[in-house]
Design brief:
Elements lengths: L1 H18 L5 E3 L8 E4 L4 E6 L4 E6 L17 H9 L6 E8 L6 E7 L11 H4 L4 E5 L5 E3 L5 E7 L25 E5 L2 E7 L6 E7 L6 E10 L4 E3 L6 E7 L2 E7 L4 E6 L8 E3 L1 E5 L6 E9 L2 E8 L4 E4 L1 H6 L13 E2 L3 E3 L4 E6 L4 E7 L5 E7 H4 L2
Parallel strand pairs: 13-18
Antiparallel strand pairs: 1-9, 2-3, 3-4, 4-9, 5-6, 6-7, 7-8, 10-11, 11-12, 12-13, 13-14, 15-16, 16-17, 17-19, 19-23, 20-21, 21-22, 22-24, 25-26, 26-27
Length: 380
């Protein structure tokens, strides 16, 4: 019994040590907008603040291990949130969803701004700044999360897009809402995509974690087969780090849905980086989220979209594709293939547990559900 207790104590110490960040301080972070959420494996929440042009690492002290393998479904999520926040369901807008891999608690960033939605091309961050963080337990209990007097650290982005620059074709929108479009944590690095104030606006920043004052800043360029040209102004909308042929790549999706690989070894500070376009998944659409998950020991990538069904593709197919799209695509699809999966209205997604992916889904009756997608049923 004593040996068991000693083993448990040592395990707990190792977990606590691995989650610690010597740069954290206790206080209230000056977060302007909860634009993007992402957890690392130690339960640290990373918050991308587009308006503040900064990344925050937050310790929510949410480290009780859950072994839950059940699904979570809330069919009237906006109604429940409206009751909590003193507004109407039609004004509730969810900006992002992330799941703590330790506790399986889901976190959503929320604003009272959906009533402003007028265009299918607008994203939540174009309309309002998310200022509310909510936690949803694996049993469906919802509570508001305070960010006052917590342990946190932060790093500012160098040269983010100017707050006053108007979007070229989204009436009334400012480019600053896309200063941070997505973030991913991998191998003690935080990768951040968005728009810079450089001539070539599309950017990726790489920050070591725990944070230091030094970030690598890169501008990005890709060939967009549907548009038939090289582009530098459109930001990455969703991406994932993934090792292909023993080399770390960023698999990135853009507006009108080209899929691009970006060699992480090229992300040295100040370098202009060209991605390799490996697929065109269909124009007239923008990707919302990407999830890498395992089922029966095999990797899959699932992408949610504004106008297309769920897209499932095999990273092995990306690894085996030797070509590159550098000319205008004479058709709707090109390059790496995907499998369409049912799931109309799926928006934000996050890996939930061994059996399910958690997602928000706009149902045919107009309500927004928090729903669980079976990994077994997604397999083609």
């Amino acid at each position: 019994m004593r040996k068991l207790m000693l083993t448990f104590s040592l395990s707990f110490f190792v977990l606590a040590l691995s989650a610690s960040d010597p740069g954290m301080k206790k206080g209230t972070p000056d977060i302007v907008s909860l634009s993007v959420l992402e957890f690392n494996e130690n339960g640290i929440l990373f918050i991308g603040d587009s308006k503040g042009a900064a990344i925050y690492a937050v310790d929510l002290n949410d480290n009780k291990k859950s072994s839950n393998q059940e699904q979570l479904n809330i069919l009237d999520l906006e109604d429940k949130l409206a009751g909590m926040l003193g507004t109407t369901a039609g004004n509730i807008m969810i900006h992002d969803l992330a799941v703590n891999p330790i506790s399986q608690n889901a976190y959503i960033s929320v604003s009272r701004g959906r009533a402003k939605w007028t265009s299918r091309w607008e994203s939540p961050n174009d309309l309002e700044d998310a200022s509310i963080l909510l936690k949803i337990s694996p049993k469906g209990d919802i509570s508001e999360v305070s960010l006052e007097n917590i342990e946190f650290s932060s790093v500012s982005l160098p040269n983010p897009v100017d707050p006053n620059v108007e979007h070229r074709w989204k009436t009334g929108a400012k480019l600053r809402s896309d200063a941070i479009t997505d973030i991913a944590f991998d191998d003690n690095k935080v990768y951040i995509t968005g728009l810079s104030n450089e001539e070539f606006r599309s950017a990726m920043w790489t920050a070591q974690y725990p944070f230091t004052s030094d970030l690598n800043a890169n501008t990005l360029e890709i060939f967009h087969g549907a548009h038939g040209k090289w582009e530098t102004a459109s930001p990455v909308r969703a991406f994932l780090p993934y090792e292909i042929n023993n080399q770390k790549q960023l698999l990135a999706a853009y507006l009108c849905t080209p899929l691009v690989t970006i060699d992480a070894s090229n992300l040295t500070d100040g370098k202009h980086v060209k991605g390799r376009t490996v697929a065109e998944f269909g124009s007239g659409n923008f990707p919302i989220d990407m999830v890498l998950y395992q089922n029966n020991g095999k990797d899959y990538i699932l992408m949610s979209n504004s106008a297309l069904p769920l897209l499932l593709f095999d990273p092995k197919d990306v690894a085996e594709y030797k070509g590159e799209i550098t000319e205008e695509v004479k058709g709707y699809l090109a390059g790496v293939k995907y499998t369409p999966r049912s799931g109309g209205g799926i928006q934000q997604m996050a890996d939930f547990n061994e059996k399910y992916i958690l997602a928000t889904q706009r149902l045919p009756n107009g309500k927004l559900a928090l729903t669980s997608l079976s990994k077994d049923r997604l397999i083609p």
